[in-house]
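Researcher: First entry.
Model:
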Amino acid sequence: MTKREAIAERALSLVGCGYVYGATGWICTRARLEQQARQYPLYAPMILRYGPKWIGRRCFDCAQLTREAAGAVGFRLPSGSSSQWRDAQAWKERGAIDTLPDEPGLFLFTQKLGRMTHTGVSVGGGWEVDARGHAYGVVRRRIEDTSFTHWARLAVDYDADAEDPNPPPEPGGRTLRRGMSGEDVRALQKQLLALGFDVGKAGADGIFGRGTRAAVVQFQKSSALAADGVVGPMTWSALDGAKNA
């Protein structure tokens, strides 16, 4: 079984589990519900209203479900959907939902007011699995019927055997290309600007668009690198060298 298959299979195996805010995969009991309601008073009404239907089942919240899916291939994600998204070392590739490849094992995120508020896992064929909410539990849905705005690929070899060890993080950061966004894109843009390369009218906006790609291509040409507009280990290394020159 490949890593992509293992991630999707683990996510699918959890369909039908319950949702309780802050749940990490434990079996739901009344005592647990009361404990969660005390710990998270903002969510207490929902926990106490819908929680009893999940008694006896494993329960997750959205980010703990994606942690469980990543754990199927020996990868440990942080807790919380925003923390997961911000962990640049966790991802090999990220992008807007309209660039989502149709393949299993990718991680999906919903951005609202500048932060990620929900997350799930693609399982192929246009479907995903997520811990939808207290009233729904863990469900399988068409991605087109969800609110997801972004996607991310773990920094693992998706075609490797699920039991194979994962590679160490790439030097410099994740590979960046057009269509991706994030603080590391913003940092790339600032570095290019400091070196005299124009990234476009929007400046360092954290979005890898046409202007940023053009700037990367120009930098790569000036550094005798393959001018493909993709910021991988060799381009990161050249940028670091130029910064320290």
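Researcher: Second entry.
Model:
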Amino acid sequence: MRGKPLEMSLLFDFYGDTLTEKQRELFDLYYNEDLSLSEIAAHAGITRQGVRDSVKRAEHALREMELKLGLVARYGGTGRCAEELMLEVERLRALNEAALHSREAEAIACRMAALLDQLRQEA
């Protein structure tokens, strides 16, 4: 999944509860179940245009929530920072092994790695 579907799925995961029940249902069928507008219309008993309008309104509402709160952007940023920090922990361990030979430095690296693993699990 790339581009718009991925973006919409992430926004839906974070802000889907802010949509109406009908918007959530139609949005989920369109983006997560990958049904066509016609298939959803037949399932929901409304017109194809009605489905399209509802999905577009939901997309707009989700993007507006992200503009106001920025949770998806922060979530992505946290993951990238955790990955970069883990690389730095690995560099510290390599430096310690090659030159420092410090038990304290290794203990610090271990605690940092454990905290990063915890952060990843919570994300």
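Model: Note on the second entry: Helices lie at 3-15, 21-32, 37-44, 48-69, 71-100, 103-122.
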